[in-house]
Automatic annotation (TrEMBL):
The entry's keywords: Coiled coil, Cytoplasm, Isopeptide bond, Nucleus, Phosphoprotein, Transcription, Transcription regulation, Ubl conjugation
Coiled-coil positions: 460-491
Assigned GO CC terms: cytoplasm; nucleus
Top-level division of the source organism's lineage: Eukaryota
GO biological process: regulation of DNA-templated transcription
Family annotation (Pfam families): zf-4CXXC_R1
Designated name of the protein: Zinc-finger domain-containing protein
Region Disordered, annotated ranges: 240-274
Organism in which the protein naturally occurs: Multifurca ochricompacta
Protein backbone atom coordinates (compact mmCIF):
# COMPACT_ATOMS: atom_id res chain seq x y z
CA UNK A 1 0.00 0.00 0.00
CA UNK A 2 1.19 3.50 -0.76
CA UNK A 3 -0.07 6.68 0.78
CA UNK A 4 0.92 8.68 -2.32
CA UNK A 5 -1.86 8.91 -4.96
CA UNK A 6 -0.92 6.79 -8.02
CA UNK A 7 -1.27 7.83 -11.65
CA UNK A 8 -4.09 5.31 -12.16
CA UNK A 9 -7.09 5.53 -9.87
CA UNK A 10 -8.75 2.27 -8.84
CA UNK A 11 -12.51 1.64 -8.76
CA UNK A 12 -14.24 2.36 -5.48
CA UNK A 13 -15.49 -0.50 -3.34
CA UNK A 14 -18.52 0.14 -1.10
CA UNK A 15 -17.73 -0.22 2.61
CA UNK A 16 -19.82 -0.73 5.71
CA UNK A 17 -21.62 2.23 7.26
CA UNK A 18 -19.56 1.97 10.48
CA UNK A 19 -16.30 2.68 8.70
CA UNK A 20 -17.63 5.21 6.26
CA UNK A 21 -16.61 8.17 8.37
CA UNK A 22 -12.99 6.85 8.75
CA UNK A 23 -12.07 5.79 5.20
CA UNK A 24 -14.14 7.66 2.71
CA UNK A 25 -11.82 6.64 -0.21
CA UNK A 26 -9.19 3.91 -0.83
CA UNK A 27 -6.43 4.03 -3.49
CA UNK A 28 -4.81 0.84 -4.80
CA UNK A 29 -1.55 0.71 -6.92
CA UNK A 30 -2.20 -1.48 -9.92
CA UNK A 31 1.04 -2.64 -11.67
CA UNK A 32 1.46 -2.22 -15.40
CA UNK A 33 0.84 -5.14 -17.64
CA UNK A 34 4.04 -6.77 -19.04
CA UNK A 35 2.33 -6.87 -22.46
CA UNK A 36 1.54 -3.17 -22.63
CA UNK A 37 3.92 -0.22 -23.04
CA UNK A 38 3.83 2.29 -20.18
CA UNK A 39 3.62 5.99 -20.80
CA UNK A 40 6.96 7.76 -21.36
CA UNK A 41 8.90 4.68 -22.61
CA UNK A 42 10.94 5.43 -25.81
CA UNK A 43 9.80 3.66 -28.91
CA UNK A 44 12.05 0.86 -30.19
CA UNK A 45 12.67 1.15 -33.94
CA UNK A 46 13.20 -2.07 -35.83
CA UNK A 47 16.20 -1.78 -38.16
CA UNK A 48 15.88 -5.28 -39.67
CA UNK A 49 14.93 -5.73 -43.29
CA UNK A 50 11.27 -6.64 -43.98
CA UNK A 51 12.12 -10.11 -45.26
CA UNK A 52 14.41 -11.06 -42.36
CA UNK A 53 13.36 -13.71 -39.85
CA UNK A 54 12.61 -12.25 -36.43
CA UNK A 55 13.33 -14.08 -33.20
CA UNK A 56 10.62 -14.19 -30.49
CA UNK A 57 10.71 -11.28 -28.08
CA UNK A 58 11.73 -11.78 -24.48
CA UNK A 59 8.82 -10.93 -22.13
CA UNK A 60 9.25 -7.56 -20.46
CA UNK A 61 9.39 -7.48 -16.68
CA UNK A 62 7.02 -5.22 -14.77
CA UNK A 63 8.44 -2.24 -12.97
CA UNK A 64 8.42 -1.96 -9.15
CA UNK A 65 7.19 -5.51 -8.57
CA UNK A 66 8.74 -8.69 -7.31
CA UNK A 67 9.66 -11.21 -10.01
CA UNK A 68 8.06 -14.60 -9.81
CA UNK A 69 10.64 -16.21 -12.10
CA UNK A 70 14.28 -17.16 -11.56
CA UNK A 71 16.84 -14.53 -10.48
CA UNK A 72 18.27 -12.16 -13.08
CA UNK A 73 21.88 -13.37 -12.66
CA UNK A 74 20.75 -16.93 -13.37
CA UNK A 75 19.01 -15.82 -16.58
CA UNK A 76 22.14 -13.96 -17.70
CA UNK A 77 24.33 -17.00 -17.02
CA UNK A 78 22.04 -19.29 -19.00
CA UNK A 79 21.92 -16.92 -21.96
CA UNK A 80 25.71 -16.54 -21.98
CA UNK A 81 26.17 -20.31 -21.88
CA UNK A 82 23.95 -20.71 -24.93
CA UNK A 83 26.21 -18.39 -26.96
CA UNK A 84 29.54 -19.93 -25.87
CA UNK A 85 31.64 -21.35 -28.72
CA UNK A 86 34.82 -23.25 -28.04
CA UNK A 87 36.74 -21.87 -31.05
CA UNK A 88 38.02 -18.33 -31.55
CA UNK A 89 36.34 -16.67 -34.51
CA UNK A 90 38.36 -14.30 -36.72
CA UNK A 91 37.37 -10.66 -36.80
CA UNK A 92 35.70 -9.85 -40.09
CA UNK A 93 35.11 -6.50 -41.69
CA UNK A 94 31.99 -4.73 -40.61
CA UNK A 95 29.23 -4.71 -43.18
CA UNK A 96 28.56 -1.43 -44.86
CA UNK A 97 25.60 0.35 -43.32
CA UNK A 98 23.33 2.85 -44.95
CA UNK A 99 24.40 6.38 -44.06
CA UNK A 100 22.08 9.26 -43.34
CA UNK A 101 22.86 10.99 -46.66
CA UNK A 102 21.49 8.16 -48.82
CA UNK A 103 19.66 9.33 -51.96
CA UNK A 104 18.02 7.53 -54.89
CA UNK A 105 21.17 8.13 -56.96
CA UNK A 106 23.46 7.01 -54.12
CA UNK A 107 21.58 4.36 -52.11
CA UNK A 108 24.62 3.67 -49.89
CA UNK A 109 25.35 7.31 -49.23
CA UNK A 110 27.92 9.53 -50.92
CA UNK A 111 31.18 11.37 -50.24
CA UNK A 112 33.50 13.76 -52.06
CA UNK A 113 36.88 12.33 -53.04
CA UNK A 114 39.85 14.21 -51.60
CA UNK A 115 41.84 13.68 -54.81
CA UNK A 116 39.38 14.47 -57.62
CA UNK A 117 36.68 16.33 -55.61
CA UNK A 118 33.96 14.25 -57.34
CA UNK A 119 30.79 12.95 -55.71
CA UNK A 120 31.17 9.20 -55.26
CA UNK A 121 29.12 6.37 -53.77
CA UNK A 122 30.27 5.27 -50.32
CA UNK A 123 30.66 1.67 -51.48
CA UNK A 124 33.45 2.60 -53.94
CA UNK A 125 35.60 4.61 -51.54
CA UNK A 126 37.87 4.28 -48.57
CA UNK A 127 37.72 6.36 -45.42
CA UNK A 128 41.01 7.09 -43.68
CA UNK A 129 41.08 5.31 -40.31
CA UNK A 130 44.18 7.01 -38.92
CA UNK A 131 43.68 9.10 -35.78
CA UNK A 132 45.22 12.58 -35.80
CA UNK A 133 46.40 13.96 -32.49
CA UNK A 134 45.74 17.61 -31.77
CA UNK A 135 46.68 19.57 -28.66
CA UNK A 136 43.13 19.25 -27.32
CA UNK A 137 41.76 15.98 -28.71
CA UNK A 138 42.32 12.90 -30.88
CA UNK A 139 40.09 12.64 -33.95
CA UNK A 140 40.00 10.40 -37.02
CA UNK A 141 41.21 11.83 -40.33
CA UNK A 142 38.33 13.00 -42.55
CA UNK A 143 40.00 12.31 -45.91
CA UNK A 144 38.24 9.92 -48.33
CA UNK A 145 39.56 8.48 -51.61
CA UNK A 146 37.62 6.81 -54.43
CA UNK A 147 38.58 3.61 -56.23
CA UNK A 148 39.88 5.17 -59.51
CA UNK A 149 42.12 7.68 -57.71
CA UNK A 150 43.59 5.04 -55.44
CA UNK A 151 44.38 2.84 -58.44
CA UNK A 152 45.70 5.44 -60.92
CA UNK A 153 47.32 7.96 -58.59
CA UNK A 154 48.74 5.73 -55.86
CA UNK A 155 48.65 2.14 -57.16
CA UNK A 156 46.47 0.79 -54.32
CA UNK A 157 43.60 -1.68 -54.67
CA UNK A 158 40.41 -0.84 -52.75
CA UNK A 159 39.11 -4.43 -52.61
CA UNK A 160 42.43 -5.74 -51.36
CA UNK A 161 42.47 -3.25 -48.49
CA UNK A 162 38.90 -4.10 -47.50
CA UNK A 163 39.50 -7.87 -47.71
CA UNK A 164 42.52 -7.52 -45.48
CA UNK A 165 40.27 -6.21 -42.71
CA UNK A 166 41.78 -5.49 -39.32
CA UNK A 167 43.49 -8.87 -38.83
CA UNK A 168 46.98 -7.39 -38.61
CA UNK A 169 49.71 -6.95 -36.06
CA UNK A 170 49.11 -4.65 -33.15
CA UNK A 171 51.84 -2.25 -34.26
CA UNK A 172 50.13 -1.93 -37.67
CA UNK A 173 46.70 -1.24 -36.19
CA UNK A 174 47.87 1.11 -33.44
CA UNK A 175 46.52 4.61 -33.87
CA UNK A 176 43.67 3.55 -36.19
CA UNK A 177 39.90 3.55 -35.79
CA UNK A 178 38.62 -0.01 -36.29
CA UNK A 179 34.96 0.91 -36.68
CA UNK A 180 35.17 0.81 -40.52
CA UNK A 181 36.26 -2.83 -40.54
CA UNK A 182 39.60 -2.16 -42.27
CA UNK A 183 42.86 -0.30 -41.72
CA UNK A 184 43.77 2.45 -44.19
CA UNK A 185 46.19 5.35 -43.76
CA UNK A 186 45.53 7.87 -46.51
CA UNK A 187 48.29 9.48 -48.63
CA UNK A 188 47.68 12.81 -46.91
CA UNK A 189 48.59 11.32 -43.54
CA UNK A 190 51.62 9.67 -45.21
CA UNK A 191 52.73 13.10 -46.58
CA UNK A 192 52.77 11.89 -50.20
CA UNK A 193 49.39 13.14 -51.41
CA UNK A 194 49.65 14.61 -54.94
CA UNK A 195 46.30 16.38 -55.08
CA UNK A 196 46.09 20.03 -56.01
CA UNK A 197 45.52 21.32 -52.48
CA UNK A 198 48.31 19.34 -50.84
CA UNK A 199 50.85 20.26 -53.53
CA UNK A 200 49.91 23.93 -53.28
CA UNK A 201 50.44 23.77 -49.53
CA UNK A 202 54.09 22.82 -50.09
CA UNK A 203 54.65 25.35 -52.90
CA UNK A 204 54.31 23.01 -55.93
CA UNK A 205 52.22 23.31 -59.07
CA UNK A 206 49.32 20.88 -59.65
CA UNK A 207 50.32 17.76 -61.58
CA UNK A 208 47.34 17.70 -63.92
CA UNK A 209 46.57 14.46 -65.77
CA UNK A 210 49.61 12.20 -65.57
CA UNK A 211 47.77 8.89 -65.80
CA UNK A 212 48.45 8.38 -69.52
CA UNK A 213 52.08 9.37 -69.15
CA UNK A 214 52.47 6.88 -66.28
CA UNK A 215 51.04 4.05 -68.39
CA UNK A 216 53.34 4.88 -71.33
CA UNK A 217 56.40 4.95 -69.10
CA UNK A 218 55.48 1.63 -67.47
CA UNK A 219 55.06 3.12 -64.01
CA UNK A 220 52.55 1.55 -61.65
CA UNK A 221 51.01 4.87 -60.65
CA UNK A 222 51.51 8.62 -60.77
CA UNK A 223 53.11 8.54 -57.33
CA UNK A 224 55.96 6.41 -58.72
CA UNK A 225 56.66 9.00 -61.43
CA UNK A 226 56.62 11.84 -58.91
CA UNK A 227 59.22 10.05 -56.79
CA UNK A 228 61.74 10.67 -59.57
CA UNK A 229 60.73 14.27 -60.31
CA UNK A 230 58.44 16.01 -57.86
CA UNK A 231 58.01 19.00 -60.23
CA UNK A 232 56.64 16.93 -63.14
CA UNK A 233 53.34 18.22 -64.58
CA UNK A 234 50.84 16.85 -67.08
CA UNK A 235 47.78 18.21 -68.90
CA UNK A 236 46.27 21.00 -66.81
CA UNK A 237 42.57 21.91 -67.19
CA UNK A 238 42.24 24.74 -69.74
CA UNK A 239 46.01 24.92 -70.32
CA UNK A 240 46.25 23.06 -73.64
CA UNK A 241 48.28 19.97 -74.38
CA UNK A 242 50.80 18.34 -72.20
CA UNK A 243 54.19 19.98 -72.29
CA UNK A 244 57.51 18.54 -71.41
CA UNK A 245 59.70 20.23 -68.87
CA UNK A 246 63.16 20.77 -70.36
CA UNK A 247 66.01 20.53 -67.95
CA UNK A 248 69.14 22.60 -68.45
CA UNK A 249 72.04 20.56 -69.81
CA UNK A 250 74.36 19.30 -67.17
CA UNK A 251 77.83 20.72 -67.20
CA UNK A 252 80.48 18.28 -68.45
CA UNK A 253 82.58 16.59 -65.86
CA UNK A 254 86.00 18.14 -65.42
CA UNK A 255 88.86 16.31 -67.06
CA UNK A 256 91.00 14.69 -64.38
CA UNK A 257 94.45 16.16 -64.31
CA UNK A 258 97.47 15.18 -62.34
CA UNK A 259 98.02 17.84 -59.74
CA UNK A 260 100.93 17.97 -57.42
CA UNK A 261 100.11 17.94 -53.71
CA UNK A 262 100.07 21.32 -52.11
CA UNK A 263 103.12 22.00 -50.06
CA UNK A 264 102.48 23.32 -46.62
CA UNK A 265 104.87 25.90 -45.40
CA UNK A 266 106.39 24.95 -42.06
CA UNK A 267 105.08 27.06 -39.24
CA UNK A 268 107.83 28.55 -37.14
CA UNK A 269 106.84 29.85 -33.77
CA UNK A 270 108.34 33.07 -32.64
CA UNK A 271 110.51 32.54 -29.58
CA UNK A 272 109.27 34.16 -26.44
CA UNK A 273 111.45 37.03 -25.28
CA UNK A 274 113.46 36.16 -22.20
CA UNK A 275 115.08 38.51 -19.69
CA UNK A 276 118.64 39.48 -20.48
CA UNK A 277 119.78 38.21 -17.11
CA UNK A 278 118.51 34.69 -17.98
CA UNK A 279 121.83 33.49 -19.43
CA UNK A 280 122.81 30.14 -20.96
CA UNK A 281 124.23 28.93 -17.67
CA UNK A 282 120.84 29.44 -16.01
CA UNK A 283 119.08 27.64 -18.89
CA UNK A 284 121.38 24.57 -18.98
CA UNK A 285 119.59 22.65 -16.16
CA UNK A 286 116.29 22.96 -18.02
CA UNK A 287 117.91 21.87 -21.30
CA UNK A 288 119.44 18.84 -19.56
CA UNK A 289 116.05 17.78 -18.20
CA UNK A 290 114.49 18.18 -21.66
CA UNK A 291 117.17 16.10 -23.40
CA UNK A 292 116.91 13.29 -20.84
CA UNK A 293 113.11 13.10 -21.06
CA UNK A 294 113.14 13.08 -24.89
CA UNK A 295 115.91 10.44 -25.00
CA UNK A 296 114.50 8.06 -22.38
CA UNK A 297 110.84 9.10 -22.46
CA UNK A 298 109.76 5.71 -23.80
CA UNK A 299 110.85 4.09 -20.52
CA UNK A 300 108.06 5.96 -18.72
CA UNK A 301 104.79 7.23 -20.17
CA UNK A 302 104.95 10.88 -21.22
CA UNK A 303 102.15 12.41 -23.26
CA UNK A 304 102.81 14.41 -26.39
CA UNK A 305 101.49 17.58 -24.80
CA UNK A 306 103.97 17.32 -21.94
CA UNK A 307 106.85 16.81 -24.37
CA UNK A 308 105.81 19.94 -26.24
CA UNK A 309 105.88 21.92 -23.00
CA UNK A 310 109.52 21.00 -22.51
CA UNK A 311 110.39 22.54 -25.89
CA UNK A 312 109.92 26.03 -24.45
CA UNK A 313 112.78 26.73 -22.11
CA UNK A 314 111.09 29.89 -20.86
CA UNK A 315 107.76 28.14 -20.36
CA UNK A 316 104.82 30.06 -18.95
CA UNK A 317 104.41 32.17 -15.85
CA UNK A 318 102.13 30.46 -13.39
CA UNK A 319 102.39 33.04 -10.60
CA UNK A 320 101.43 36.67 -10.15
CA UNK A 321 104.28 39.16 -10.10
CA UNK A 322 103.77 42.79 -9.20
CA UNK A 323 105.77 45.59 -10.74
CA UNK A 324 106.85 43.58 -13.85
CA UNK A 325 110.43 43.29 -12.54
CA UNK A 326 111.44 40.41 -14.84
CA UNK A 327 115.06 41.56 -15.24
CA UNK A 328 115.84 41.20 -11.54
CA UNK A 329 119.01 39.17 -10.91
CA UNK A 330 117.64 37.79 -7.66
CA UNK A 331 114.41 36.20 -8.92
CA UNK A 332 115.18 35.54 -12.58
CA UNK A 333 115.38 31.74 -12.15
CA UNK A 334 111.88 31.53 -10.70
CA UNK A 335 110.23 34.43 -12.52
CA UNK A 336 110.99 32.82 -15.88
CA UNK A 337 108.29 30.17 -16.05
CA UNK A 338 108.79 26.49 -16.80
CA UNK A 339 106.42 23.58 -17.48
CA UNK A 340 102.96 23.09 -16.02
CA UNK A 341 102.14 21.29 -12.78
CA UNK A 342 100.80 18.15 -14.49
CA UNK A 343 103.90 17.90 -16.68
CA UNK A 344 106.16 18.16 -13.63
CA UNK A 345 104.13 15.47 -11.87
CA UNK A 346 104.63 13.11 -14.85
CA UNK A 347 108.38 13.76 -14.83
CA UNK A 348 108.72 13.06 -11.11
CA UNK A 349 106.63 9.88 -11.28
CA UNK A 350 108.67 8.66 -14.27
CA UNK A 351 112.04 9.28 -12.63
CA UNK A 352 111.03 7.62 -9.37
CA UNK A 353 109.58 4.70 -11.33
CA UNK A 354 112.97 4.11 -12.97
CA UNK A 355 114.60 4.04 -9.55
CA UNK A 356 112.02 1.57 -8.25
CA UNK A 357 112.06 -0.84 -11.23
CA UNK A 358 115.85 -0.97 -11.62
CA UNK A 359 118.04 -3.75 -10.25
CA UNK A 360 120.39 -1.24 -8.64
CA UNK A 361 120.74 -1.70 -4.90
CA UNK A 362 119.31 1.43 -3.31
CA UNK A 363 120.01 0.50 0.26
CA UNK A 364 117.50 -2.20 1.10
CA UNK A 365 113.80 -2.83 1.36
CA UNK A 366 113.18 0.34 3.37
CA UNK A 367 114.35 2.56 0.48
CA UNK A 368 112.07 0.85 -2.02
CA UNK A 369 109.12 1.26 0.33
CA UNK A 370 109.91 4.96 0.70
CA UNK A 371 110.03 5.38 -3.10
CA UNK A 372 106.67 3.62 -3.47
CA UNK A 373 105.11 5.89 -0.86
CA UNK A 374 106.54 8.98 -2.59
CA UNK A 375 105.08 7.89 -5.96
CA UNK A 376 101.64 7.35 -4.42
CA UNK A 377 101.73 10.74 -2.67
CA UNK A 378 102.75 12.57 -5.86
CA UNK A 379 99.97 10.90 -7.86
CA UNK A 380 97.44 11.86 -5.19
CA UNK A 381 98.68 15.45 -4.94
CA UNK A 382 96.33 16.70 -7.70
CA UNK A 383 99.18 18.77 -9.18
CA UNK A 384 99.69 20.66 -5.91
CA UNK A 385 103.32 21.80 -5.85
CA UNK A 386 103.59 21.94 -2.05
CA UNK A 387 102.28 18.39 -1.70
CA UNK A 388 104.67 17.13 -4.39
CA UNK A 389 107.61 18.72 -2.61
CA UNK A 390 106.37 17.31 0.68
CA UNK A 391 106.50 13.78 -0.81
CA UNK A 392 110.05 14.38 -2.08
CA UNK A 393 111.13 15.80 1.28
CA UNK A 394 109.84 12.68 3.03
CA UNK A 395 111.76 10.47 0.56
CA UNK A 396 114.92 12.47 1.17
CA UNK A 397 114.60 11.99 4.91
CA UNK A 398 114.22 8.20 4.56
CA UNK A 399 117.22 7.89 2.22
CA UNK A 400 119.43 9.94 4.56
CA UNK A 401 118.61 7.58 7.43
CA UNK A 402 120.14 4.66 5.54
CA UNK A 403 123.17 6.48 4.11
CA UNK A 404 123.94 9.99 5.41
CA UNK A 405 126.75 10.42 2.85
CA UNK A 406 124.59 9.64 -0.17
CA UNK A 407 124.22 12.63 -2.58
CA UNK A 408 120.64 13.77 -2.46
CA UNK A 409 118.57 16.56 -4.01
CA UNK A 410 118.57 20.01 -2.35
CA UNK A 411 115.72 22.25 -1.26
CA UNK A 412 113.68 24.16 -3.88
CA UNK A 413 114.48 27.72 -4.79
CA UNK A 414 112.70 30.39 -2.73
CA UNK A 415 109.60 31.94 -4.28
CA UNK A 416 109.77 35.39 -5.90
CA UNK A 417 109.72 38.21 -3.42
CA UNK A 418 106.68 39.89 -4.95
CA UNK A 419 104.61 36.74 -5.36
CA UNK A 420 101.14 36.62 -3.82
CA UNK A 421 100.96 33.43 -1.74
CA UNK A 422 97.58 31.92 -0.86
CA UNK A 423 98.07 29.56 2.07
CA UNK A 424 95.62 26.64 2.34
CA UNK A 425 95.39 23.48 4.41
CA UNK A 426 95.99 21.29 1.34
CA UNK A 427 99.35 23.02 0.80
CA UNK A 428 100.68 22.35 4.27
CA UNK A 429 104.46 21.91 4.35
CA UNK A 430 106.28 18.94 5.81
CA UNK A 431 108.72 20.94 7.93
CA UNK A 432 110.90 22.12 5.03
CA UNK A 433 110.08 25.79 5.45
CA UNK A 434 109.80 26.46 1.68
CA UNK A 435 106.56 27.48 -0.01
CA UNK A 436 106.52 26.23 -3.64
CA UNK A 437 104.43 28.47 -5.90
CA UNK A 438 105.94 27.78 -9.34
CA UNK A 439 107.45 24.75 -11.07
CA UNK A 440 110.67 26.67 -11.77
CA UNK A 441 111.53 26.39 -8.06
CA UNK A 442 111.84 22.58 -8.41
CA UNK A 443 114.39 22.60 -11.26
CA UNK A 444 117.32 22.08 -8.82
CA UNK A 445 115.36 19.18 -7.28
CA UNK A 446 114.69 17.37 -10.59
CA UNK A 447 118.30 17.64 -11.82
CA UNK A 448 119.82 15.30 -9.15
CA UNK A 449 117.10 12.74 -9.90
CA UNK A 450 118.53 12.47 -13.43
CA UNK A 451 121.95 11.58 -11.98
CA UNK A 452 120.31 8.85 -9.90
CA UNK A 453 118.30 7.55 -12.89
CA UNK A 454 121.43 7.27 -15.07
CA UNK A 455 122.67 4.50 -12.80
CA UNK A 456 119.57 2.34 -13.25
CA UNK A 457 119.64 -0.85 -15.29
CA UNK A 458 116.87 0.29 -17.66
CA UNK A 459 118.80 3.40 -18.71
CA UNK A 460 122.00 1.38 -19.17
CA UNK A 461 120.24 -1.12 -21.42
CA UNK A 462 118.81 1.72 -23.48
CA UNK A 463 122.26 3.28 -23.90
CA UNK A 464 123.74 -0.04 -25.03
CA UNK A 465 120.91 -0.54 -27.52
CA UNK A 466 121.52 2.93 -28.92
CA UNK A 467 125.24 2.23 -29.28
CA UNK A 468 124.48 -0.93 -31.26
CA UNK A 469 122.24 1.01 -33.63
CA UNK A 470 124.94 3.62 -34.19
CA UNK A 471 127.51 0.94 -35.00
CA UNK A 472 125.12 -0.69 -37.46
CA UNK A 473 124.48 2.62 -39.16
CA UNK A 474 128.22 3.33 -39.48
CA UNK A 475 128.79 -0.11 -40.98
CA UNK A 476 126.06 0.46 -43.60
CA UNK A 477 127.59 3.81 -44.55
CA UNK A 478 131.02 2.20 -45.02
CA UNK A 479 129.60 -0.55 -47.23
CA UNK A 480 127.79 2.00 -49.38
CA UNK A 481 130.94 4.07 -49.83
CA UNK A 482 132.95 0.96 -50.76
CA UNK A 483 130.36 -0.08 -53.36
CA UNK A 484 130.41 3.39 -54.90
CA UNK A 485 134.18 3.36 -55.25
CA UNK A 486 134.14 -0.04 -56.93
CA UNK A 487 131.55 1.14 -59.47
CA UNK A 488 133.63 4.20 -60.21
CA UNK A 489 136.79 2.16 -60.79
CA UNK A 490 134.97 -0.10 -63.24
CA UNK A 491 133.52 2.89 -65.04
CA UNK A 492 136.91 4.53 -65.58
CA UNK A 493 138.04 1.59 -67.73
CA UNK A 494 135.42 2.45 -70.37
CA UNK A 495 136.33 5.24 -72.84
CA UNK A 496 132.75 6.50 -73.04
CA UNK A 497 132.86 7.28 -69.33
CA UNK A 498 134.53 10.62 -70.10
CA UNK A 499 131.48 11.83 -72.01
CA UNK A 500 129.16 10.25 -69.47
CA UNK A 501 130.96 11.97 -66.61
CA UNK A 502 130.67 15.31 -68.40
CA UNK A 503 126.92 15.12 -67.90
CA UNK A 504 127.39 14.86 -64.10
CA UNK A 505 130.52 16.86 -63.39
CA UNK A 506 129.50 17.71 -59.82
CA UNK A 507 128.41 14.29 -58.62
CA UNK A 508 130.62 11.24 -59.14
CA UNK A 509 128.25 8.97 -57.22
CA UNK A 510 125.36 9.86 -59.54
CA UNK A 511 127.57 9.29 -62.61
CA UNK A 512 128.60 5.84 -61.43
CA UNK A 513 125.05 4.87 -60.56
CA UNK A 514 123.74 5.96 -63.95
CA UNK A 515 126.57 4.22 -65.71
CA UNK A 516 125.94 0.95 -63.85
CA UNK A 517 122.27 1.03 -64.88
CA UNK A 518 120.74 1.58 -61.45
CA UNK A 519 117.34 3.29 -61.14
CA UNK A 520 118.44 6.30 -59.16
CA UNK A 521 116.91 9.77 -59.78
CA UNK A 522 118.72 11.74 -62.49
CA UNK A 523 119.50 15.42 -62.17
CA UNK A 524 119.34 15.91 -65.97
CA UNK A 525 116.32 14.38 -67.72
CA UNK A 526 116.66 15.84 -71.22
CA UNK A 527 120.15 14.61 -72.07
CA UNK A 528 120.50 11.26 -73.92
CA UNK A 529 121.71 8.08 -72.31
CA UNK A 530 125.11 6.69 -73.34
CA UNK A 531 125.96 3.02 -73.49
Amino acid sequence: MSMRPPSIRAQRTPLSSSKLHKLPEVYVLVPHSPYSQPFGTPEVINTHAPNSTLSPLTPLRAHNMTSAGPPSNLIKRKRSEENIDGTKKPVTGAAHTVTSNATPGFPNGFFYCHQCNKKRDSSVGLFCTYKIRTPNSVARCKAKYCRPCLKNRYGQDLDEIKDRGINALHKETAGHDKAQGYIFKCPRCLSNCNCRSCRKAVGLEPTGNLTSAAKRSGANSVAVMLDGDVKMTGILPGKGKQRRVFRPPRAPDPVPTATAPKLRMPVSRKPKPLPKSFTLERAMPRITIREFVIRFGKLFDMSRGHLEELEEIGGRRSHEVEGNNSDSEQDVDVEVGWVGETCLRSILVGFLGLLLDSQLELGGKQSKTAIQDAIQDIKASRANLNQMWGALAGLRAELKKEDPHRPIFPDPLPPPQRTKIHTTRSGALNGSGVNVTTTAQLVPVVLPLIEMALGTQAVRDELEEGAKKVKERVREEKELAKSTREQWERAKKNNSLVRFYSIYPDNQTEACARFAGQNSPSRVQTKPEFA
